[in-house]
Amino acid sequence: MNTTEKVFSQLKAGTQVSLASITASGYPRPVPMSITAVGKNKEIWFATSLKSEKVKAYKENPRAGLSYYNDEFTASITGRIKVVEESGKKRELWHDTMSFYFPDGADSKDYCLLQFTPELLRAVTVKDIYKYEVKTILLLNTI
Fold this sequence. Notes:
By secondary structure, this protein is an alpha+beta fold. The chain has 3 helices and 8 strands. The longest helix has 10 residues.
């Protein structure tokens, strides 16, 4: 399994990540997020409130960063976020666990999705404290 496959395999397993937007003043704003789904084309989906600061930030500037780590490696991915309010996709990715945040269910007016399209992956594989390997992988030719 190559590095990209390893990273996305772990993301599909429901890894907690830090997802960063860019504020109006140009600073990164990382927030902890749970992954809702990972699509066939490596797009990563998150559920959130339409009223959240991050949604406002992504509508103004779609650039985003995602990072996480485990015992084997660290990964950071840069890409772009699209705010999705389409009801069909919201129903498709709905989980009952989201009811805590959205008691009106998949049709809640406050529930939306963030579609993260990755462009660049940087993974650092740690073999031991003195040996590590850095891989930078272009995922989309849009940079």
